[in-house]
Amino acid sequence: MADPFRDPDPADVLATGRGSPPATPRWVKVFGTIGIVLVLLLVLGLLTGRHHGPGRHLPGHGAPSGKAVPQTQPGDGQR
Fold this sequence. Notes:
By secondary structure, this protein is mainly α. About 35% of the residues lie in helices and about 0% in strands. The chain is rod-shaped and about 100 Å long. About 0% of the residues are buried.
């Protein structure tokens, strides 16, 4: 009977095909690479001080213009 506590013989490992775990699938590598690139872009954008969000598409980069918008009430004479 084989001793379960001894290291396996390298010739036996190669013969049985249980030498190393299977390689990482390509789709895991691709998604991992994409995830790392997105995280790096996010960190780079935050460190450079670029503003993000819907306000960056407005004139003045989302800063209030200081102009008051006239509000009309029903019955103000506008028909």
